[in-house]
Amino acid sequence: MAKHKGDSIHGWLIIDKQAGIGSTDVVNQTRRLLNADKNGHTGTLDPFATGVLPIAFGEATKLIPYVTDGIKEYEFTLKFGSTTDTLDLTGQITQNNGKIPTKDEVLSIIPEFIGKITQIPPAYSAIKISGQRAYDLARKGQDVAIPERQIEIYKLELLSILSDCEYKFKVLCSKGTYVRTLGADIAKKLSTFGHLTALRRTKCAKFDLSHTILLENLKNMSYISARQSQLLPLLTSLCDITVFAVREEDAAKLRMGQKISPKAYPIANIIGQEVIATHNNEAVALVRIEESRISPIRVFNLK
Fold it and tell me: Edge-to-edge strands of the sheet including 282-289?
């Protein structure tokens, strides 16, 4: 997460990231373009990948985990017959001349990837192994042993056949899913090789392409105020969460990190839930409702 001396602004900027730039570079550029004091992204997109990259500013950074943990949607192109060390088009070819499956063969194995499955993240990934990034070890030629993890695929469909060897898919998946690995595993199931030639994130939690702006369009705006006006409200990331109005004195307590009594509030239907406490239509805190107390989880300082 990046912080420097700048304007105290709060909210979300949803960038349609283009290929060739890293997620951290997008964070740094948007921080400068909006003259913001603090911002951070909600999960890395590979440099070759494009699509929805939510950037949190100010107090919205406290909500990053709620976006990171959200469901993701991707469109990806899988090229059959060859694979690379990175499992995408940026790497060196390691296996070639594999068979090209038919459409019927591809369709027949898709159901095997729906639901909870395990996968081994690629060696060229940001996962830490003994304190070092896996991709740093891989670039040094070291063997990278990454344990398998369980992820969930909610939906996987074949969108189109782009050429004899390139198939375009759409996947709806849980956090932690590596689509590069998914592509390689699909190819392996078909007794061949495969690597991604395109990857585009179309949804990230509550955000989709309709919320996005290109970094170049942001740069073309002449004034900082115009760029800052592109921010979505802080609570956009939690658009389906219950909003709960509290009294001024209780808002003051929550802002200081103190618990408040629920006795004066109608909480019967929200016990056990996390909700947004507001005062005068301004977010005060993300709180947990219990029978005997209302406890702050994340406090927002929007002044």
Answer: 243-245, 274-279, 282-289, 294-299
* Residue 181, phi then psi, degrees to nearest 5: -65, -40
Distance CA 170, CA 287 (A): 36
Q: What are phi and psi of 113, to 5 degrees?
A: -105, 5
Q: What is the CA radius of gyration of the chain?
A: 22
25 included as an active-site residue: no
Helix (H) or strand (E) holding 249: helix 248-255
Per-residue pLDDT of 147-190, as tens digits, reads 788 999 999 999 999 998 999 999 999 999 999 999 999 999 99
Q: What angle do CA 21, 146, 88 make, to 5 degrees?
A: 35
Query: Which H or E run contains 171?
Result: strand 166-173
Burial class (CB in 10 A: 0-12, 13-18, 19+), 72: buried
Residue from 302, 276, 303 nearest 289 by CA: 276
Nearest to residue 4, comparing CAs of 35, 50, 40, 46? 35
Distance CA 183, CA 178 (A): 9
* Distance (Å) of CA 285 to CA 119, 235, 303: 37, 11, 14
- Spatial contact of 18 and 215, defined as CB atoms under 8 Å apart: yes
User: How confident is the model over 38-94, as pLDDT tens digits?
Assistant: 999 988 898 999 999 999 999 999 999 888 989 999 999 999 999 999 999 999 999
Partners of 170 in beta bridges: 75, 157
Identify the DSSP state of 228.
H
Within 10 angstroms of residue 198's Cβ, the number of other Cβ atoms is 18
Q: DSSP class of residue 119? A: E
Quickly tell me which residue has 């409702």 as its tokens. Answer: 289
Q: Which of 7, 25, 46, 85 is catalytic?
A: 46
Q: Over 80: is that where the pLDDT of 125 sits?
A: no
